[in-house]
Amino acid sequence: MKKKILITGGAGFIGSHLVRHFVNKYLAYELYNLDALTYAGNLENLTDIQDKANYNFLKADITDAADIERLFKLHKFHSVIHLAAESHVDRSIKDPLSFAKTNILGTLHLLEAFKKYSDYKKGLFYHISTDEVYGSLGAEGLFTEKTSYDPNSPYSASKASSDHFVRAYGETYGLRYVISNCSNNYGSFQFPEKLIPLFIHNIIHLKPLPVYGDGHYTRDWLFVKDHANAIDTVFHKGISGETYNIGGHNEWKNIDLIKLLCSKMDVHLGRATGESEKLITFVKDRPGHDLRYAIDASKIERELGWKPSLSFDEGLEKTVVWYLENETWLNNLTSGKYQEYYERQYK
Ligand code: NAD
Ligand code: DAU
Asked: Which of 237, 309, 329, 334 is least surrounded by Cβ atoms within 10 Å, i.e. has the fewest?
């Protein structure tokens, strides 16, 4: 019988890339995508694989313990790759409770159901986490797997807590698990609340580009398909009980990245050089804004043989082209409720 692999959050940004990657590459698995289809989940991200024989979609909410238990009892999943989460820092500042509910309690419901109905000492519970659990770096240094947790936003506090619960289930009940902590992803199908797709959308529509604070905050950017590859590598080669940092060796100050994005957009939109940059508007800073994230990814590179495949220039170029060729996808997401969110966040 084929192994049943459950991916949660597979209709979101990273999840949809991961589901596509697994469905196309691993015909020996029966792949299940469990997603509640919140504002961030979108089945349009998966139209190319929706009819594949090894793909199944389960609409379910990880905060609904009874439904999660029912599904695990029914399917007895071999392994779980858990991505479902509330993922946007700005939303967590306005509504921390939903982040605790989904990211902490939702993860616990999955752990409980996996422990109860799966062969949890043979399968694997893989938690997809973030570098934000480590807090903020100063001008120097990198996050390693040994860096202490020091989360600053409600989002990162909820992810840190769920990481701890996964680890605790490993220590206490012997559940096989791995955790990876990744830096900022970019690429196609990212919801336009995050920096890059939001700014692409605003540049197209000649709307202001709201740069938080002075723009001198630094992030380490990784192309989303490289993250999907890294997750595949950790899932198949990672050691139970270990954590792996994943990053792109690709630090950018926000303002420099935004200027690069503006120049690419000018070229593609046939605008005069410097035109999109004129949209840059410095706005009130994000409360608790982490100054700098940067990942030391040497463990996964050395021990598991993964490394990023694309330069940032190549990845950003592909990303810009994708959003321009898929404006309908972008426009479908930026009407209705999105406008209310935008007003609230940027008024
Ligand atoms: P996303 O917001 O694009 O997608 C989240 C998905 O989870 C959506 O499909 C949504 O419908 C689903 N979901 C939310 N609440 C749910 C619930 N209660 N039950 C079932 N499904 C639910 O997020 P993303 O950017 O793709 O991130 C995926 C994971 O990777 C998250 O765990 C996030 O913390 C982590 N991560 C993200 C990044 C990044 O740069 N985006 C970097 C490192 C780690
Ligand atoms: O580091 C990994 C994390 O990266 C993931 O765990 C999160 O799920 C993901 O959302 C992302 O978090 P960030 O807060 O770093 O991403 P965001 O795209 O929201 O912001 C990137 C940087 O750009 C950050 O310094 C804030 C800034 N920013 C963002 C927005 C949306 C702006 O200046 N203006 C904006 O309008």
From this structure: 309
Are the beta carbons of 13 and 221 closer than 8 angstroms? no
- In the chain, the domains with their CATH numbers are 3-185+221-246 (3.40.50.720), 191-219+251-289+311-337 (3.90.25.10)
CB hemisphere CA count around 279 (13 angstroms): 24
Q: Is the pLDDT of residue 13 over 90?
A: yes
- Ligand 2 pocket check for 131: Cβ under 6 Å: yes
Catalytic residue list contains 132: yes
Q: Indicate whether 316 pLDDT > 90.
A: yes
Q: Ligand 1 atom 10: the closest Cα is on which residue?
A: 41
| Active-site residue (options: 55, 126, 155, 217) | 155
Q: What is the pLDDT of residues 40-94, one digit of tens each?
A: 999 999 999 999 999 999 999 999 999 999 999 999 999 999 999 999 999 999 9
Judge whether 245 and 131 are in contact, CB under 8 Å. Answer: yes
